[in-house]
Write a structure and sequence with these properties.
Blueprint (H helix, E strand, L loop, with lengths): L1 H10 L3 H17 L2 H6 L3 H6 L1 H46 L2 H11 L5 E5 L3 H8 L3 E2 L15 E6 L1 H27 L3 H21 L6
Helix pairs in contact: 2-5, 5-8, 8-9
Length: 213
């Protein structure tokens, strides 16, 4: 059996190829009929090393199953992450205060999603630190008798992509709420729907650039 180890070392076979190969090879020697093994001149060799082939089969099969389960888990996590990524992002953007939303909205409506801001402003620093804005490795110019640090900042791609996705959804939701308002009789329910509509409308108008001077 030493020749198998030497062959593996020489060929440097990747694990993803080696394990299935061992599993198939040992499984064949274990479960093939005696007649077939006789024809292939493997019967006596298989009988002598049956215990070893049994171990190889179980060990390699166990590794393959573990790798397969780990792959399924990782794929499921990745799919779930992608499915919920935009939803989590829009929730975070909605939960920002109005000043922070205004900065994002102005950048969203700026050429290349880029504009110059004073990096010393706490709002700007906060958005950069939370990865909503990106400044890159640019040289920062300072001015005498001023604390201003003007920096070109760009909206991170995940921000504008999320807004691109949800603005049309929110606009459709406004129409849906308006249709519901026509049917609702309860004043309490009407007020709640009206507030919801106004909040969504404000968000849409803000990121459509309708609220800027």
């Amino acid at each position: 059996m030493d020749w198998i180890t030497k062959l593996i070392n020489i060929l440097k076979i990747p694990l993803k190829v080696l394990l299935p190969a061992i599993c198939i090879f040992s499984g064949f020697l274990l479960f093939a009929s005696d007649e077939l093994l006789e024809k292939m001149n493997l019967f006596s060799w298989s009988a002598q090393n049956g215990f070893i082939f049994g171990l190889l089969f179980l060990i390699s099969l166990s590794f393959i199953l573990v790798y397969f389960i780990a792959f399924i888990i990782n794929q499921t996590k990745e799919i779930w992450f992608k499915a919920t990524f935009d939803r989590k992002n829009i929730k975070r953007i909605i939960e920002l205060n109005l000043s922070e939303q205004s900065v994002l909205a102005k950048l969203y409506n700026s050429p290349g999603y880029t504009a110059t801001y004073d990096y010393n402003q706490p709002i700007i620093k906060g958005l950069v630190n939370r990865n909503y804005l990106y400044g890159g490795n640019q040289t920062v110019a300072t001015f005498a008798y001023s604390n201003k640090i003007p920096v070109n900042l760009t909206l991170q791609p995940f921000v504008w992509k999320t807004i691109d996705k949800y603005l049309p959804i929110f606009k459709k939701n406004i129409i849906h709420i308006e249709n519901r308002l026509k049917k609702v009789k309860s004043e309490k329910r009407k007020n709640k729907l009206q507030n919801e509509k106004e909040n969504i409308q404000y968000f849409c108008d803000l990121f459509d650039g309708k609220l800027f001077d």
